[in-house]
Specification:
Distance between the termini: 46 Å
Number of strands: 8
Largest sheet: 8 strands, mixed
Structural class: alpha/beta
Shape: globular
Number of helices: 10
Order of helices and strands: HHEEEHEHEEHHEHEHHH
Helix content: 25-40%
Strand content: 5-15%
Amino acid sequence: MIPSLFLRALTVPDADRPAVLEALLRDRGVASARIPLAGSLHLAVKFPDSSYNPRYRTKLLVAHHDRRPGSSGALDNGAACLQLADLAGRLALREEPHNTVILFTDSEESSGAGDQGSFAVARALAGRVKALAGEGEEPPAVFVFDVTGRGTVPILSTTARDLLASRGPDCGDLAGRIGDLESWAARTLRRAGAAPLRLPVPWSDDLGFALGGIPAVTVTLLPRSELDARSPAPRHGRPDGTEAPHGEFPAEPPATWALLHGPGDRPEILEEESFDLMACILDTFGDLKIPRVRRIR
């Protein structure tokens, strides 16, 4: 269900979006913390220590709260923010560990990659991991959710891994770790009954995380009709539930992406069935347990 009251508050022209999200989280019984970092204002939800089992990696579920001027920011990226805030309320009721931190980032829409809020977050995370556990410790498993309020087909972005892999051996380790996270994300989506496609997707917070040395994977949604029109095939996940291989969009972007960053991104384009699907998907990410493995350098 779309939380319409908070959606309206989030999308008015002068919205204080972090304050709206704080109010929604309080309404769901969840406390949050503001994190000012390198000129950006992030909002974090960390659960009680009993929510974390040291046998498993911490999962960082991310959605950016900022928007482009001239846009309501409903689809990009208010929808994912509302969906993650609802997840926070459900996770707060769990008694068993779930190893999840939720982060609403700022400055994803920055014109410079190094100015993205996620870049500063990644640098801070990388420094903390090295200080606490040395070079071999894995950072949190970062899953980014962007443009998830329209459509019912989940897409895993291949953009970061493909770019890093193309740069040769120096980037191979990070590309490989992103590939590992892709595999975990694909399994999780299949468990939620939503076999994903892997496609090149416009950069999201995964760019800042990758530049900061932290592997991250972006999940988005698209309508089935827009995927049916793309080329080349295959168009759907396979009948056995496995995801389709890599594909490419033509030069003309999907209609959903053409709505972003301008007046076409408005609350009316959000779809109830997308929110229902994302509730199931995010609950399954909340259930995900990734064993903690110390990497040997």
